[in-house]
């Protein structure tokens, strides 16, 4: 099916093809012959998809759009401070070819006007057997994701007619802003302006800027974030010359245009936009380029103020674990301990992004908890993006809490956050599901507030939750029919797709169940420990095991084999009824737990 | 517990109190006596929480920070075009008190320099019995969330010494940029600069700008989004005068400072920051204000490039419904139809934000589907923010799909999105859970590709999925023990907390189950239809009904009462074993379905 975005761009392209204002650049004879009707719009996403309409593969010279890229290379080579001594970052409010040098020092106002751009070019030195200019072209190529070349014809014409830029280079040399011979600098600058790009190339270059400096097609990191912050900031205030203020007000994206008819705009984090159409307005920018950018920004909500994500409160729900118990059956002693102490552990469900606003709301919620809350379980499964400030603040919360003997626990479904903490050597207890995190918290509370009666390492079959509805003599009679087995760490006890083989009761140790996820992933489902059962789930899926069960450490189990159950049904139907009834109840206890876990929670 | 953000701000405040550079404003005698050690930092969130450190309640005059607010009022009063004819939006690159009028027209470069600010003030007319100046103060007060007043003493001193501003007003009058008598305009301007604010006020004013123009304390919409986009854009390029470029590069937030020592900065969507400290730098901005903003921006990642949310692909998983069947048992005919046609319905799980980038990835995924996919189920439960562009694109997708006889279905847990579509009169089928959406899709496919055999309106007890493992004569024997009941729409069949009363088999019609959510919400859990069972769930929760079951339309059921089951266990234990075994399998089929529904899916 035709994409609505593609068809939107096609409609816009058709409509703006009727806009005939402006004239192609006439300053260089070699550029005068361009076809004014050439027109392309490209939009590249930060994951590397490029929408293309019109003459998107047509090559033209990059001209002033080269400026932010050379500036970025200079900043990467020399650092911000060294470059700042040569070129300021202030809007000049002047046209691209104005002189705009600071009185006394001769420092150009910014790197988007010609004086600043010439200076930036002068700062790129050769290295590794490559000339400075070779490095410039390779830098642009890394942005575009393909090898770019120079139009020799246009370069020659620029070199022949570039009196004003040569004058600027000499003037800059007189102030010692440019420190080498000015003519070769001007020639490198003419060459950089003569690099051939397509509209598609420009959109990928813009998307690389939008994508934190990483080219979304090649995956290569071309600029680091600090430099890219600087480049986009200067583009925002100075990129459109004397039209910069109106541009930012109206279009709201850092941008750069060139007299070759190209224009690119960047919405950080989202997309790169490029337009090619040679006729220019009075500011030297493509008429259709400006209009297309304006229209796309309005229609798609791309203005930086509008595109800012609402920094919502990240707290989805907050409740103590008594509202969402693990559901694990406990001894009476343990149940008493939990009843009295469940308020000491609290689940806070977060969602959205942990950028500043989300992080702040999380920090505030945790800081405001009563000091009697000892364990704070942060359910991060619905959190989308986690900024560095969130990790810092979590670390500070953890430190402050630890001083008071309190602790943080994460529920982190896919484990990505827990992994980032582990890499930093500051692991936090983390679990894939709420049930397991709450189980952990309950165990902590029982360990702190109960005694050894509460947490037996070994659970007798007769005491297992599954058989608890049975009379003692019935449970004992079933136990007598079971076989005892022992497994070592990592042993597979049940394998996926095996036939129902009976019900396993864990006497001591624990097992882990996994299942294949879609598209070849493997999903850890649960950890089961002493007193719990497995194997019976196969009854719900045509008698086939749906999970693989592995020993986690040494495990002792008792097995009530499938054949024994069948025999029991004919030899002692009364006891068989009791067994099946108990298993039904246990199964529905599971269903109940899942329903509670998945129920929609809405905070008032 | 002390919040880490509060303690971060306190540490910063202590540290920067040692920074003694700069001098308080000396241009007006009444302002010369200020204590240079007064110092406050406030940070207000878009949900209205204010962090305050230092002298946050101390009043001082707003001075130039008034400019963006008066400009916003002028834009609201007259519209953008009318104001633009009087004041441009270009950075002047000059100091705040430079003249910067366009040659010929006299139009000030922007509303952040004095000439533009005087012009904006001249545009505010009285109305509703209020003077223009009264309206200005009320506008500022709406931003601050409290009634602000004027320092008469400072106003008098400004009025006596404001020769330069009076000159500017007369000059603007000579160009007819100001159309009334210039002296009263200058006096209103001196008065607006003399409005008293606290650092806390400024942070709330900034948070109102960050919050799309709605004051987070009062909930009042003070500016509309179009005007606020403009105001923040002009603050970004011109707010810090001749320091604007360096500020945006380094701090990366639209901002405004005043010679009274105040400074505010805005991160759209996230927060408002304000600092008060009278000693000024050469640009007329608070030394500590600039340094505190810089530090907070770096430490919290607030630069507009860095704070931009990564526009990730919103597609979490995509699979056809055969990979996630509803689990509802079908007739053999229906099962055949589904086996052959399940690929015609596809679930696409989305997450993150549907701003531009997320929307684009959704649109692309749907557009690229094979045309044989007729029903596209968008699982929106993990989607956080939905921008207008997402609704537009969903609408366009729906229209394009409908032309080809294809359709969209939403899974929208909390129903918010479905509601927005309904309000616009363009309702889409939407469901709270994946299971119910898939059931709907299955029914559609069966209706399209099957015949009347497939979807019986009435299901005999013996054919219910729960009893399907039984031999036909056993199922018939159980059916003979059941009582038939009929209910009307809305009748409560089982009420929460009732004791286990037996197993209900739905013969025709459907029922809805609900349960109380935390914090007094009510959660709709499921719709059950002919062939399905209820009541047995109570066995999993100490024999107490955990849900309320209501008739949805007229419903006929057969009930196998609890007492009948008990009697059966002693009179016909073999049949009782078969019943309980069947119920166990059915229960585990439920567990299996839940596990599949909640399993973590990770896309490769």
From TrEMBL, chains A, B:
Keyword Cytoplasm part of the UniProt annotation: no
- Read off the SMART domains from this record: cNMP
Q: Which UniProt keywords apply?
A: Acetylation, Hydrolase
Q: Which Pfam families match?
A: cNMP_binding, Glutaminase
Q: What is its EC number?
A: 3.5.1.2
Q: Which reaction does it catalyse?
A: L-glutamine + H2O = L-glutamate + NH4(+)
Respond yes or no to whether keyword Signal is given for this record. no
Subunit composition and interactions: Homotetramer.
- Put simply, this protein is called Glutaminase
Lineage here is: Bacteria, Bacillati, Actinomycetota, Actinomycetes, Micrococcales
The gene designation is glsA
């Amino acid at each position: 099916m035709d994409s609505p975005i593609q068809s939107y761009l096609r409609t816009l392209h058709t409509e703006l093809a009727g806009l005939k204002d402006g004239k192609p650049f006439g300053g260089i004879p070699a550029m005068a012959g361009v076809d004014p009707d050439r027109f392309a719009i490209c939009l590249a996403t930060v994951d590397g998809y490029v929408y293309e309409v019109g003459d998107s593969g047509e090559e033209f010279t990059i001209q002033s759009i080269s400026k932010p890229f050379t500036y970025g290379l200079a900043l990467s080579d020399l650092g911000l401070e060294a470059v700042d001594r040569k070129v300021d970052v202030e809007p000049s409010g002047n046209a691209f070819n104005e002189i705009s040098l600071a009185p006394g020092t001769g420092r150009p106002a910014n790197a988007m006007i010609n004086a600043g751009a010439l200076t930036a070019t002068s700062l790129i030195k050769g290295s590794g057997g490559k000339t400075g200019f070779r490095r410039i072209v390779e830098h642009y190529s890394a942005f575009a994701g393909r090898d770019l070349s120079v139009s020799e014809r246009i370069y020659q014409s620029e070199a022949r007619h570039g009196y004003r830029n040569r004058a600027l280079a000499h003037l800059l040399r007189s102030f010692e802003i440019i420190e080498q011979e000015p003519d070769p600098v001007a020639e490198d600058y003419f060459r950089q302006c003569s690099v051939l790009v397509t509209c598609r190339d420009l959109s990928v270059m813009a998307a690389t800027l939008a994508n934190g400096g990483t080219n979304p097609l090649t995956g290569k990191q071309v600029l680091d974030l600090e430099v890219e912050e600087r480049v986009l900031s200067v583009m925002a205030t100075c990129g459109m010359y004397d039209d910069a203020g109106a541009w930012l007000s109206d279009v709201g994206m850092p941008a750069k245009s060139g007299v070759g008819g190209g224009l690119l705009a960047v919405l950080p984090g989202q997309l790169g936009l490029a337009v090619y159409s040679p006729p220019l307005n009075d500011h030297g920018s493509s008429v259709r380029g400006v209009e297309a950018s304006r229209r796309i920004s309005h229609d798609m909500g791309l203005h930086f103020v509008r595109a800012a994500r609402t920094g919502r409160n990240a707290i989805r729900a907050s409740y103590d674990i008594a509202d969402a118990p693990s559901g694990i059956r406990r001894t009476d002693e343990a149940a008493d301990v939990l009843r009295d102490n469940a308020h000491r552990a609290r689940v806070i469900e977060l969602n959205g992004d942990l950028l500043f606003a989300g992080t702040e709301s999380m920090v505030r919620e945790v800081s405001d908890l009563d000091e009697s809350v000892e364990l704070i379980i942060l359910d991060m499964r619905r959190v989308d993006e986690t900024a560095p400030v969130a990790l810092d603040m979590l670390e500070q919360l953890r430190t402050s809490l630890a001083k008071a003997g309190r602790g943080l626990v994460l529920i982190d479904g896919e484990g990505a956050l827990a992994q980032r903490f582990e890499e930093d050597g500051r692991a936090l207890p983390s679990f894939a599901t709420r049930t397991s995190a709450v189980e952990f918290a309950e165990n902590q509370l029982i360990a702190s507030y109960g005694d050894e009666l509460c947490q037996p390492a070994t659970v007798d079959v007769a005491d297992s939750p599954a058989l608890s509805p049975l009379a003692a003599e019935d449970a004992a009679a079933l136990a007598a029919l079971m076989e005892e087995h022992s497994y070592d760490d990592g042993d597979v006890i049940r394998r996926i797709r095996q036939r129902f083989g009976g019900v396993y009761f864990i006497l001591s140790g624990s097992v882990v169940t996994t299942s294949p996820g879609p598209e070849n992933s493997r999903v850890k489902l649960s950890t089961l420990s002493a007193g719990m059962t497995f194997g019976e789930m196969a009854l719900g899926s045509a008698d086939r095991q749906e999970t693989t069960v592995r020993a986690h450490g040494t495990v002792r189990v008792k097995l009530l084999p499938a054949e024994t159950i069948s025999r029991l049904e004919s030899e002692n139907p009364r006891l068989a009824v009791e067994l099946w009834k108990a298993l039904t109840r246990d199964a529905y206890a599971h269903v109940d737990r899942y329903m509670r876990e998945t129920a929609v929670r809405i905070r008032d």
